[in-house]
Specification:
Layout: H1 5-24, H2 32-37, H3 44-55, H4 59-71, H5 86-98, H6 107-111, H7 114-146, H8 153-192, H9 194-202, H10 204-211, H11 233-247, H12 253-257, H13 263-296, H14 302-310, H15 315-323, H16 328-364, H17 370-394, H18 396-405, H19 408-421, H20 427-444, H21 446-455, H22 473-494, H23 500-511, H24 517-523, H25 537-541, H26 543-570
Helix pairs in contact: 1-8, 1-16, 3-8, 3-13, 3-16, 4-13, 5-13, 5-26, 7-8, 7-15, 7-16, 7-17, 7-18, 8-13, 8-16, 8-17, 9-10, 9-13, 10-13, 13-26, 16-17, 19-20, 20-21, 20-22
Length: about 575
């Protein structure tokens, strides 16, 4: 189905509304804290929409719908890996807020030393620039596929970039979060819009079970397909652990958890924003199964059937073409734009924060004023987006490879967890751990596999990239985590510990609730940025109930999500 004028009008209205709403936030920017942390004044709803928007990339429904088309309901594990971590988000949120950091790089000089912070900032800036390019390229590919080639990739890249870069440049995190009031609901629309049309076309849930083998409705491992067995229990457990380790080192962590008025805003915002995403994922996986049933029933055109069997990543676009009428097609395109621009604007702001605060002021101009930091960050953000646009337009395969290589920042998660959980961890041990983790991961994992492909398997050693496939994650973890952790522990024990004052300051930050900043002032603890620092009455009066009761509620809801998913897999069977 080709786009008509009505579809195009829907997309244009969305882009103009987002642009106007974002630019309007520029009037509220006075300091770099306003720009990078929104003054820490956002309420729970804003942070829920921010969490939903930044966590929901359009490549995820592409992966889940494609995986479900080929392997069935178990395709949901592409995104449900984070489900077991959701209660932990509730428990972690107040401690992330209490750091009063602006960027994740601020952690390293506070806990270890400045050199690790510089390393993180450099790698984080590069990673996010490349990620911007990959997201832009991925969105353009979805647009071209879903429109049957009617939307040129170059123009969709440039249109998206113009909108998100303009409001991100003007309003920073405040503009990013406020525009997600539009983008968050559209992401929900993107996830559920095709279901009624698809179920009607496939003959309801009974039609799905009649058309497809029973294995397609299993939530566990499914064998077959070009990749063989993907979702073994060991793979799911390993990927969940990797997600937990790397989560704490994400560049956007502070913006997501620590830009609310109180600690409770961060808890509710991220926990339940990502919870909404889990509900959206059920819509994605069901869409993939519906498309598989329609294909088995002969409802897809020969061309659609061939293309989706050749590349399962095209299942999302194929479902749009096969199911949506005009007008709703335009709404779906607007929803795809929404999911990507929420991510892109957040990446722009977070990368410019690292560039301006941790590199420009931290390394090159320590005496820079706040005004200079703010404007350097804006200009740096435009420059970094420019790199991403270039990669999206010119370097498709290289950009993908670079993204994998620059996942080096997730290795920093091991160092961060050690710094929080083990007081004896020191800078020398952290550097030793980083080096060992990176070398082993690089040689045995995906980068080594790419290197072997470039030099030829005949000339490369057998171990190079031996665990580079996604199904090898459990084996790769067993080989790079133990030596890295061992190096960190041994070197930390053999070398001089961090100063007692530095450690006392760091742990006092984590123990001091928002609203009790006077304790930090009296103790002489450096505070990077407080912003709004009011205490929440509920947390103040019932801290244990809020902390553990809230985590238990989140855990119960996660179990309910699994129950709903299980019930959906049996409907009509």
């Amino acid at each position: 189905m080709q786009l008509n004028h009505f579809d195009i009008a829907v997309v244009v209205i969305y882009l103009v509304a987002t642009l106007g709403l974002g630019i309007a936030q520029a009037m509220k920017i006075r300091t770099s804290g306003d720009y990078y942390a929104g003054g820490r004044t956002f309420n729970k709803f804003y942070l829920m929409m921010h969490a939903l928007g930044t966590a929901s990339h359009a490549d995820e429904p592409v992966s889940v719908i494609g995986g479900a088309f080929e392997k069935g309901m178990s395709g949901i594990w592409y995104t449900f890996l984070y489900l077991p971590l959701t209660p932990l988000f509730w428990l972690m949120a107040p401690f992330i807020r209490r750091t009063r950091f602006v960027t994740t790089a601020d952690f390293f000089p506070a806990r270890y030393n400045r050199s690790l912070g510089i390393l993180y900032a450099v790698m984080g800036v590069l990673k996010m620039s490349v990620s911007i390019g990959v997201v832009l390229k991925g969105t353009a590919t979805i647009m071209r596929s879903a429109s049957g080639g009617a939307i040129d990739e170059k123009w969709s890249i440039l249109a998206m970039t113009l909108v998100f870069m303009t409001y991100g440049f003007a309003g920073g995190l405040r503009a990013t979060v406020v525009t997600e009031v539009i983008q968050g609901p559209l992401i929900i629309v993107m996830s559920l819009l095709m279901l009624p049309f698809g179920l009607h076309a496939a003959g309801g849930f009974a039609g799905l079970h009649h058309a497809l083998p029973k294995a397609m409705f299993s939530l566990t491992m499914v064998a077959g397909g070009k990749d063989g067995a993907e979702f073994t229990p060991a793979w799911v457990a390993a990927m969940t652990l990797v997600a937990l380790i790397g989560f704490i080192a994400q560049p956007g962590l502070l913006a997501a958890f620590a830009s609310g008025k109180t600690e409770l805003e961060g808890r509710v915002g991220y926990t339940y924003g990502t919870m909404i995403k889990r509900g959206c994922a059920i819509g994605w996986v069901l869409t993939g199964v519906i498309l598989a049933a329609m294909d088995a029933q002969g409802h897809l055109s020969p061309g659609q059937s061939v293309q989706v069997h050749q590349r399962r990543e095209l299942a999302f676009g194929t479902a749009m073409q096969a199911l949506l009428p005009h007008g709703l097609m335009g709404l779906m395109f607007a929803a795809i734009f929404a999911s990507q621009m929420a991510t892109l604007s957040a990446q722009m702001v977070n990368s410019s924060a690292l560039a301006s605060r941790n590199l420009y002021r931290g390394v090159f101009r320590p005496a820079a004023t706040d005004h200079q930091v703010l404007w350097f960050g804006r200009i740096a953000g435009v420059f970094l987006v420019g790199i991403g646009v270039y990669l999206a337009l010119a370097l498709d395969s290289v950009a993908t490879a670079l993204t994998m290589l620059l996942e080096f920042t997730s290795i920093m998660g091991v160092i961060m967890w050690a710094g929080v959980l083990w007081r004896r961890a020191n800078s020398a041990g952290a550097w030793a751990g980083v080096c060992v983790l990176f070398v082993v991961w690089f040689l045995l994992g995906p980068p080594g596999m790419l290197l072997k492909q470039s030099i030829g398997a005949v000339h490369a050693p057998a171990f190079l990239g031996h665990y580079g496939q996604k199904q090898d994650v459990p084996d790769l973890m067993l080989r790079y985590l133990p030596p890295g952790i061992l190096a960190l522990v041994v070197v930390s024990l053999l070398t001089k510990p961090q100063s007692k004052k530095q450690l006392d300051n760091f742990y006092l930050l984590l123990r001091t609730p928002v609203g009790q900043e006077q304790i930090l002032i009296d103790a002489g603890v450096p505070v990077v940025y407080s912003g709004s620092h009011q205490a929440n009455a509920l947390e103040t009066r019932y801290p244990a109930l809020v902390h553990w009761g809230g985590a238990l509620l989140a855990a119960v809801l996660c179990v309910m999500f699994l129950g709903v998913l299980y019930a959906v897999s049996w409907l009509g069977g």
